[in-house]
Design goal:
7-stranded mixed sheet, Rossmann fold, about 230 residues, binds S-adenosylmethionine, single chain, 7 helices, alpha/beta
Length: about 230
């Protein structure tokens, strides 16, 4: 399903990224948000066998987390978003931090077709914007893209009272700009990932977000039926 210029979600995100930075020069609230998510990422990365990884970020927005991972571990990255405005932000951020081993791809994460390619596939604040089969497809696309020794990280807002107050506040003030968004709990995220053949490695907390780390489950041993 290629993104069309009339895709209302794409237009909504273009509009969002036209007026929000979330780059390096943001408000104190964004800085706090970014720091707490990055601390969650550091905890997620801790002790994993990832050296100079190939990284795929789905729904990259500014690509901030990928830039931090590359600064931390080295490696190279592919960043995908269907919003040209988001990709402009990402290009600017990577220029500012001087990282150039990066591909910026304008594409729809519901229909990307990477298979067994990356050491780390991640997204932050993305899967909760999809429902039902579309959401499952986005999860599946994370799991298909990772190689057999790699990891998938999925960060989502969790349904805490703090999240609900924040969402209610923005909605009441007419400042909710994120379209459809339903927070997810750990069991929900893990069970979808397990249904695509992944094993849970750990879950981390990052501000109002939680991050689930999984890798490929080993193939099940095959025991042929014994014939008496
Ligand atoms: C809440 S933002 C998170 C961005 C990023 N994680 C960050 O922190 O800057 C969600 C992002 O997903 C992108 N997105 C939403 N639906 C998409 C789709 N179907 N295909 C590609 N990107 C999509 C939006 O354009 C937006 O940049």
């Amino acid at each position: 399903m290629p993104p069309s210029l009339n895709d209302p979600d794409q237009e909504q995100w273009d509009e969002y990224w036209s007026s929000n930075s979330c780059g390096l020069d943001d408000s104190i609230i964004h800085r706090y948000y970014r720091r707490s998510i990055w601390e969650g990422y550091l905890e997620a990365l801790d002790g994993l066998n990832l050296k100079e990884p190939s990284i795929l970020e789905l729904g990259c927005g500014t690509g901030y987390k990928t830039a931090r991972i590359l600064q931390h571990l080295g490696g190279r990255a592919t960043l995908i978003d269907f919003s040209e405005k988001a990709l402009e932000r990402a290009r600017t951020l990577f220029d500012e931090v001087g990282i150039d081993d990066v591909k910026f791809v304008k594409g729809d994460i519901r229909s990307v077709d990477y298979k067994d390619e990356f050491d780390l596939v991640h997204s932050d604040g993305v899967v909760e914007h999809f429902e039902g089969n579309e959401q499952r497809r986005v999860f599946e696309n994370h799991c298909r893209a990772v190689n057999s020794t790699g990891y998938v990280f999925i960060f989502v807002p969790s349904p805490t009272w703090c999240y609900r107050v924040w969402k209610w506040g923005l909605t009441t003030l007419g400042r909710w700009r994120f379209g459809y968004e339903e927070p997810m709990n750990e069991e929900n995220v893990v069970s979808i990932l397990e249904s695509f053949g992944m094993d849970a490695v750990r879950t981390v907390k990052a501000g109002r977000f939680l991050g689930v780390v999984v890798n490929r489950a080993p193939p099940k041993p095959f025991y042929p039926h014994s014939v008496d």
